Amino acid sequence: MGTQRKGINTICTHEGEIHDEQFKGAISPLYMSTSYAFEDVDVKRYPRYFNTPNQVALAKKIAALEHAEAAMIFGSGMAAISTALLAFLRAGDHIVLQKTLYGGTYNFVNEEFSKYGIEYSFTEGLDPKDFEDKIKGNTKVVFIETPSNPLLTITDISAIAKIAKKHGLVSMIDNTFASPVNQNPIDFGIDVIIHSATKYMGGHSDICAGAVASSNDNMERIFQLAKNLGGSLSDYTVWLLERSIKTMGIRVKAQNANAQRLAEYLSTHSEINKVYYPGLPNHPGHELAKAQMSGFGGMLSFELDPAYDASEFQNALQLIKSSMSLAGVESTVLSPTQTSHALIGPEERLNQGISDGLIRFSVGIEEPEDLIFDIEQALKKLKGDKAGLRKVQLAK
Q1: Nearest to 212 by CA among 187, 240, 239, 193
Q2: Complete edge-to-edge strand list for the sheet that includes strand 192-196
Q3: Which of the residues 174, 246, 251, 308 is marked catalytic?
Q4: DSSP-assigned letters across all residues of 7-36
Q5: Bridge partners, residue 124, by sequence
Q6: Is 187 a catalytic residue?
Q7: Which residue in the list 134, 140, 199, 360 is annotated as catalytic?
Q8: CB-CB contact of 56 with 33 (8 Å)
Q9: How far is 76 from 195, CA to CA, in rounded Å?
């Protein structure tokens, strides 16, 4: 009789935990040592080798969450992305990446790859043909991100995986926005899954970490580079991350529901020009998202009417925080042009559809009515300020 795949909340809570054999505590003990014995031991443990007790245990949990054979935890999402990419690319190689990517990834490729002699091409769009058209004789990797940051574009995971296999390429995905709760790309044929674990895995805006999950062979290749680059994570943060992942399933499902409610509200608002959320039927990737996601996620973006200034609107919010990161239990907003995509030039940002009026909204677990009230009061305040200024100008 085959083993049953455990449910998401069970995996989050129990997979990879360290059993406290000495005191029978309910949670994993924390092993803070950075120095371990090397004689008469099965494993020579060293933090930079990603094999301390807490590192190994958390890696098992993340691998289980992503239906992978193995995983590793890094010091940040960019450490995970850069190490995974460089593990499979060398001078003379070529990579195809989708155009709509997290700004940090886009900047890393543009700024650093030429130093390593690595060639790269960005697709023009998200049609699988756009990816295949860019493949060359020296292409080794294809890299996607879906839903993308910040426009929530949806890429056909299965189609990209098939193209990669057809051409003998390694397929990689940044799965941060979806989280393992909403999307498991390995089930669709993707080889390497990457996360900024700072986001939904951490979930409380107090951890910086990254994660990579894949086959044993791929993870061994990534490890051989990672141990030299030194992007490991301290055991205390590893322990905190394991604690946070225990509630990821219920947190993300609550954020999914809130984001759907807020997206529907914003999409009918007269002061909002456009809403980007795959859970809306008019989103161009809605049907595809339904096919490859079990939930539409807690992230959305929207464009204010040009009459309103994005910064003024964010400053007028009282409950929703203006903040740099995302995926915490608290709702936050930011302007991608000033933060996540500030390193990309204005022309390229507009090319990608990222306007100055675009606001990225990370929806938390608050009551949706309270979030709606906060948005309404902020818009009313700005309306009132504009009306007052107009009266002053007319009086002059």
Answers
A1: 193
A2: 70-74, 210-214, 192-196, 170-174, 139-145, 94-97, 119-122
A3: 174
A4: PHHHHHHHTTPPP-TTT--SSPPP---S--
A5: none
A6: no
A7: 199
A8: no
A9: 9
- Marked catalytic residue, from 48, 227, 274, 321: 48
Q: Tokens 């069970």 — which residue? A: 10
Q: Closest Cα to residue 57, out of 42, 73, 36, 43?
A: 73
Q: Is the dihedral of CA 89, 94, 95, 99 positive or negative?
A: positive
Identified catalytic residue from 31, 45, 61, 102 = 102
Could you tell me the CA-to-CA distances from 300 to 139, 254, 270, 393 in Å, in that order? Answer: 33, 15, 18, 37
Q: Give the separation between CA 48 and CA 30, rounded to whole angstroms.
A: 17
Task: State how beta strands 321-322 and 139-145 pair.
Answer: unpaired
Q: Is 386 a catalytic residue?
A: no
Asked if 61 is an active-site residue, the reply is: no
User: What residues does 306 pair with on adjacent strands?
Assistant: none
Those residues whose C-beta lies under 8 Å from the C-beta of residue 304, and which sit 6 or more positions away, are 271, 272, 273, 310, 313, 357, 359
pLDDT digits (tens, 9 = 90+) for 264-283: 999 999 999 999 999 999 99
261 alpha-carbon distance from chain centroid:
21
3-state secondary structure (DSSP) of residue 223? helix
Structure tokens at 134: 């860019």
- Least Cα distance to 360 among 385, 328, 336, 380 occurs for 336
Task: Identify the bridge partners of residue 300 per DSSP, sorted by sequence position.
Answer: 361
Q: Give the dihedral of Cα atoms 218, 224, 228, 229; nearest 10 deg.
A: 0
CB atoms within 10 A of CB 20: 12
Q: Please give the model's pTM, rounded to 2 decimal places.
A: 0.93
**Residue 170: exposed, middle, or buried by beta-carbon count in 10 A (0-12, 13-18, 19+)?**
buried
20 near 28, Cβ under 8 Å?
A: yes
Residue 340 confidence class, pLDDT cut points 50, 70, 90: low
For the record, the structure tokens of 136 come out as: 């060359």
Q: Is 102 a catalytic residue?
A: yes
Instruction: Tell me the per-residue pLDDT of 25-47, one tens digit each, with 9 for 90 and over.
Output: 999 999 999 999 999 999 999 99
Residue with tokens 């004789």: 137
Is residue 162 within 8 A of residue 181, CB to CB? The reply is no
